[in-house]
Amino acid sequence: MTTWLGGIAYGLGLTGYTGALRRLGVNPYLRWVTALLIQILLLYGFAMGGQLTLGIRVVTGIGWDLAVLWFLLGLFHRGQLPFVGLHLFDFWMVALGWAMAAVLARSPLVHYDNFSHWAVMVKFLYFTGHLPGAADHLISFTSYPPATALLITHFLHWTRFSEGLMLVAQFGLIWAAAYAVFAVLRDRTRALTAMILCLTIAGSLVFNVAIRLNNLLVDLVLPLLAVAALAGVFVYRRRPWLLWPHVALFTAGLLLVKNSATFYVVVLAGYALVVSWQNSRGWARVRQWGGAVVALSAGAGPFLLWQHHVQTTFTLSKHEISAQAYQHQLAGESPQMLLRIGQHFLRHVLDWHQLSTQGLLLINAVLLGAWLIIWLVNGHRNRLWATALLIDGLMLLYDVSLLGMYVLSMPYAEAILLDGIERYRASVVILGLFIGAMVLVRIIDATFYEQTFEKRDSRSFTSIMSKNAYQLSTLVAGFFAVTLMYSEITGTTFTNRMNRNTLPRQLARTSRPWHHLNHRKVLVVDEQAVDVDDYYAGYVGRYYYFTDQAVGQENFMLSPAAFDRVIQHYDYVVIPEHHRTFTVLTQKVYHQHVVTGLYRVHRHALERQD
């Protein structure tokens, strides 16, 4: 019950912000994601000042005050907002979004990167109330910006600490960004164009299959925030007083999600500059470009502040962006090694069996097919072919930058394996998918026989055949939009069941998690050698027991004396599943029958902890 009340309190604060944004002219479909980014930036300011907990209360309190203000004004019929109506896509978003959130609320975290950074960062912020400092060795990737962690911590503060609620909070940001795509529709009452966008949202999750929604990684967050940013630029193209604050806000938000968001910011800035140039003349263009400089500078400011914080706080930071770090990386790699990385990369990109490559081919096929059909059937000249070329160009630029990341930022052992390449490339495929869909629905609407919205009804078709084609296309798009989203929901449920015997779930059955940051030495006895070799066991132990001294070990082929020395090095030992060698040795050394559980290490015994 406390969780529900806290969720309502959080939601009330958020609606206060959305109401204020509506009254300032922000598009109704952009208000949710815009409000979330504003809250993130406010929390970021408090966190940089060392007052995160206070910031959460202040930011939410402002929302409550605004919500009360709008309610009181409404009682006196002052400052009321026009009702934008409910459409087919609203019901699709609410119904399937709610179903997805319900599944995520019961989902555990399993993916490696949750425990190497994303989830552990949320846990650190939630229980310490401040950003990590030089003495906090629990956080390994200290250069990663904290935007999503701040958003999740904000939500958990009013509900409770839960892995499932972490996923719900991040899904809220994803769904709010996806909702922004409907802002580009010319006529929101048309079911066909609305269902095409719903199908695009559901289809994007197919290319997110490498991580799915039940993980805190930001590979889906980045492209969807970029899509929302691009939709806003289009909507505000003739309103510079909204355009440039929008660009500044989304630039800051993207850069504070992850360092690699630079590519998306470049795309956003390029599109904003083109749009402002097309919609202004003479000195107005100079003012527009001046606004662009101010907006992009303001948007980059929070990230530059973060970079300064990282460089002045930490002596060494993984994946840090700096010329010195890149020079050090290149110094350790020979030209032959760089050439081999490039060859592996090119072979992967050109392999049509890869999902990301198939996605790019699908986007091209749909856009070029639609271009040809519209041209031949309706005689409308359109630029869908140019959109396909643009998306191909973006993919090429991203591949070049991605290759640079493997060369400059990754150790050779990881780079030669192209570690994570599919989920990285899938992000840009998702961006291209939405760009193509937004352009497509605008062009489809422009080809309708009746262009006056008020006159559109069941009889406003050129022929019965065109009406039947419209209805059939709508049914097909709607069917697949629902089916793909349902597939994601059931797929996540199935994955949760399959993950019951993974190491994080075993620890949850073995002992209670620790919530006080500590430096106790914890040994995770793991039956799976691969979990130890890739440090997964250690990262899971660090997260679960909230200590920077957790390590995993699988091999215990030791003499009793050597075994005793190893055990005495630790404060606690946890055995998530039966390890035969460990059980035999504890019987010999400590005369105890140990199977699973958490044990405190004493000089001559292991004491089981409840």
From TrEMBL:
<feature type="transmembrane region" description="Helical">
    <location>
        <begin position="286"/>
        <end position="306"/>
    </location>
</feature>
<feature type="transmembrane region" description="Helical">
    <location>
        <begin position="164"/>
        <end position="185"/>
    </location>
</feature>
<keyword id="KW-0812">Transmembrane</keyword>
<feature type="transmembrane region" description="Helical">
    <location>
        <begin position="428"/>
        <end position="449"/>
    </location>
</feature>
<feature type="transmembrane region" description="Helical">
    <location>
        <begin position="384"/>
        <end position="408"/>
    </location>
</feature>
<feature type="transmembrane region" description="Helical">
    <location>
        <begin position="29"/>
        <end position="47"/>
    </location>
</feature>
<feature type="transmembrane region" description="Helical">
    <location>
        <begin position="83"/>
        <end position="104"/>
    </location>
</feature>
<feature type="transmembrane region" description="Helical">
    <location>
        <begin position="360"/>
        <end position="378"/>
    </location>
</feature>
<feature type="transmembrane region" description="Helical">
    <location>
        <begin position="217"/>
        <end position="236"/>
    </location>
</feature>
<feature type="transmembrane region" description="Helical">
    <location>
        <begin position="248"/>
        <end position="274"/>
    </location>
</feature>
<feature type="transmembrane region" description="Helical">
    <location>
        <begin position="192"/>
        <end position="211"/>
    </location>
</feature>
<feature type="transmembrane region" description="Helical">
    <location>
        <begin position="54"/>
        <end position="77"/>
    </location>
</feature>
<protein>
    <recommendedName>
        <fullName>ABC transporter permease</fullName>
    </recommendedName>
</protein>
<keyword id="KW-0472">Membrane</keyword>
<keyword id="KW-1133">Transmembrane helix</keyword>
<feature type="transmembrane region" description="Helical">
    <location>
        <begin position="469"/>
        <end position="489"/>
    </location>
</feature>
